[in-house]
Amino acid sequence: MRLKLLVLAFVILAVAFAIAAFQEPLQEKAPAPSVSLGCDRVVWKDTELELQASVSNIKTPYFQWKIDSNAAGNVTKLKKKFEPGEHKVVLNVSFGSQMLQANQTITAIDSSDGIALRDFQASKNQWGFQTTYRGRDVGVKGVKISTDSLPYREVNPCGKLSTKGLLAGKHEWKAEYRGKTIASGNFALKEVSEIKIERISINKSYRAGDTVDGKIILKNTGTTIIKGFEIKTVIINRNYEWMGDKAKKESSSQYNSEIKPGEAYEIPIRVTIPEKVGGIRPSGRYTITVSLALDGKTVDTKVANTKVD
Question: What contacts 225, CB < 8 A, 6 or more positions away?
Fold first, then answer.
């Protein structure tokens, strides 16, 4: 008898703990504070560079800048011209009783010697570039790249640049720095026919009577022009899923648009949620499944969730 009572006590205790755990879910930890100065940079001598920290999850930060071990100010943004040579930038950020440090190396040059580019395939329809200085990946300010005689585009602060979506075939590129060509080359992309659903844009919740103003966003991720596709949509009210087809709505639409490599295509979703359907308020949790088909074959599917109060 005592053994049965003991087992029963353990069962009751376990259920109590389970209920408590369900009622009091673990709280997510707050994101850790962070500070960054970004990538190391290479600049032409006497070029004015704006230094700015990226600060996350820090309230009322206090900045202390140092350049080559010399105090450089307490401002949020720092503008500075650098003489030829390598310079060490240090930023101390104080908040409360804590402090974080970020570092960056700025190299000022008076010659283009040592500047080069590393190129690579960035995606199925994009080619990528990375500036280097003396064999090290670094952001070289002012390097511009042209592909297939298109207008030049400047690399980002980290020295990276990707082409826009390109068609399959051979392509040429060249890079210039301060008006002179410093590198050139060519590459080839294979023929790939591919389109994907990038995302379904809708709100997380609505009220009966609201107008849903969302969109389905497609993107051509291949190297051929997509001509014609089909969109199939299935909407299910999860609260009434047990009612079968009465809780489900299906639709299908054919589109004859042409989408070039890298291009996005938006399909609007605009519908008014009725106050009542058959005398019943259409509240509940909804799952929206969108399928994309080419030549009758489904090539991608995305699911979005929302609710109606």
Answer: 167, 258, 259, 260, 261
**Are residues 72 and 106 in contact, defined by beta-carbon separation less than 8 angstroms?**
no
Number of domains in the chain: 3
Q: pLDDT digit string (tens) for 120-146?
A: 999 999 999 999 999 999 999 999 999
* Cα 119 to Cα 167: distance, rounded to the nearest angstrom: 18
Q: How far is CA 43 from CA 77, 86, 128, 297, in A?
A: 18, 10, 21, 52
Q: Is 2 left (phi over 0), alpha (psi -120 to 50) or beta?
A: alpha
Q: List alpha helices for 194-272, DSSP H.
A: none
| Amino acid (one-letter) located at 210 | D
* Distance from C-alpha of 112 to C-alpha of 110, rounded to nearest angstrom: 7
**Among 169, 189, 209, where does a domain finish?**
189
In this structure, are residues 250 and 244 in contact, taking their beta carbons and an 8 Å threshold? no
Residue ranges making up the domain that contains 178: 115-189
Residue 39 lies in a domain: yes
What lies within 8 Å, CB to CB, of 83 at 6+ separation is 45, 46, 108
Asked if 201 contacts 145 with a C-beta cutoff of 8 angstroms, the reply is no
State the Cα–Cα distance between residues 285 and 205, nearest whole angstrom: 9
Taking only the tens place, the pLDDT of each residue in 261-292 is 999 999 988 777 776 666 667 678 888 899 99
**Separation CA 300–CA 309 (nearest Å):** 30
